[in-house]
Write a structure and sequence with these properties.
Helix content is about 45%, strand content about 25%. The strands form 5 sheets. The chain has a 4-stranded antiparallel beta sheet with strand order 2-3-8-9. It has a 4-stranded antiparallel beta sheet with strand order 6-7-11-10. It has a 3-stranded antiparallel beta sheet with strand order 13-15-14. The chain has about 375 residues and is an alpha+beta fold. Helix 4 crosses helix 5. The longest helix is centred in the C-terminal third of the chain and has 29 residues. It has 13 helices and 15 strands. The chain starts with 15 loop residues before the first helix and ends with a helix.
Length: about 375
């Protein structure tokens, strides 16, 4: 009787940064600011893209700097057998978000030749998509992951004379498990911006459940934008123009300004309805008798502010824990190997800190009541 092939399990989380990437809270996931703010997705339907250039260039701003992203489509064989040119769409936005949440679970990441690798199954991706009410077939999930591996992104820093920040796909390395294989694995490797953010501890936790509840792709982008801006400025009130939201989120250029402004206002209203914003003031900007833009003054809700404060605290504690566990080593020096015993102690410490944070929040709610 022949033995079943033994699947080699990667050594997961035995690096300090990978253990600190983990979050046991299913309501949270990790965000990489510049990568998540870049307008990587195309929200126009395929018919609207017919006859366009084979590349899309978009200028956007992040952290007081100007960037340009170039999207290069890939050819893919559709389910009907035709060859189509495709960009990343809202479906890929959702699938990537789900994969990153799964990758934030305990012990799921591994280092492979100094690259961050995530091994998973299509079944668990589909199960999580169903849980967050974004159901897709196995074929659609596999196609989305293929596009995330093949659609190339080039991000340039315009303030540094176009110096490239990234030239890669979302998942530059991809392996699918074959149907007839017992020991094959489905895995992806994260692109350099995400991998470097993990190594340097330059990631923050963000509200995953609200992201998945929101059905508007522009509102999902705006939630992350607000999270990043509020956490850096420590100001609950933020102002942003509708034209900035359109440009930086990757929304298409509308034929009429009136319809564009209405569409952006809808995305802002989604965040208010979701409890992210407590109050929104909208000022109409006019040129003569023509409305040309909207200025939104958005006040973050107390619940959203509490989540941002918790995220900032966790990021700070991650840096302190890394310094303590590696005896003063710097994240820039590379992924820091640690023992399984150290991983276990680190996880226990983080659970204790999370419990204290929850207890403090409960006491504050009781005092408010």
């Amino acid at each position: 009787m022949s033995k079943s092939p033994v699947r080699r399990q990667p050594v997961s989380a035995n690096h300090a940064q990978l253990a600190l990437w983990e979050t046991d809270d299913p309501n949270r996931t990790n965000m990489v600011a510049l990568y998540d703010m870049a307008p990587r997705f195309v929200f126009e339907d395929r018919d609207a893209l017919q006859g366009r250039s084979r590349m899309i260039e978009r200028d956007f701003s992040f952290g007081q700097k100007r960037y340009r992203i170039t999207l290069k489509p890939t050819q893919i064989r559709a389910q009907d057998g035709t060859i189509q040119e495709r960009f990343l769409s809202e479906r890929e936005q959702i699938v990537e978000e789900v994969i990153r949440r799964l990758a934030s679970k305990r012990g799921r990441l591994a280092i492979h030749h100094q690259k961050v690798r995530f091994t998973f199954s299509l079944h668990e991706v589909r199960t999580e998509l169903k849980r967050v009410r974004h159901a897709h077939s196995y074929y659609e999930i596999q196609e989305a992951i293929t596009l995330l591996s093949e659609v190339r992104l080039v991000i340039q820093d315009l303030d540094a004379k176009g110096s490239p920040v990234l030239s890669s796909a979302a998942f530059p390395v991809l392996g699918f498990r074959r149907k007839d294989s017992d020991d094959g694995e489905t895995f992806v490797e994260f692109n350099p911006l995400v991998s470097d953010a993990i190594r340097l501890l330059e990631f923050t936790q963000v509200d995953y459940e609200t992201l998945m509840t929101i059905r508007d792709p522009v509102a999902r982008w705006l939630l992350k934008r607000l999270h990043n801006e509020v956490s850096h400025t420590r100001q609950p009130v933020q102002q942003i123009l509708a034209s900035e939201i359109r440009r930086d989120s990757g929304m298409p250029i509308w034929k009429t300004t009136r319809n564009l402004l209405r569409r952006v206002a809808q995305a802002v209203d989604v965040l208010k309805d979701a409890g992210v914003l407590d109050h929104v003031e909208t000022e109409e900007l006019m040129q003569g008798q023509k409305k040309v833009d909207l200025l939104f003054t958005m006040s973050a809700s107390p619940d959203f502010m509490a989540k941002i404060h918790a995220s900032s605290r966790i990021a700070r504690e991650n840096r302190e824990a890394f310094n303590a566990i590696t005896n003063g080593r710097q994240p820039v020096d590379g992924f820091a190997p640690i023992s399984m015993q150290q991983v276990t102690r680190l996880r226990a410490s983080r659970r204790s800190a999370a419990a204290e944070l929850l207890e403090d929040g409960t006491e504050e709610e009781a005092e408010d009541a």
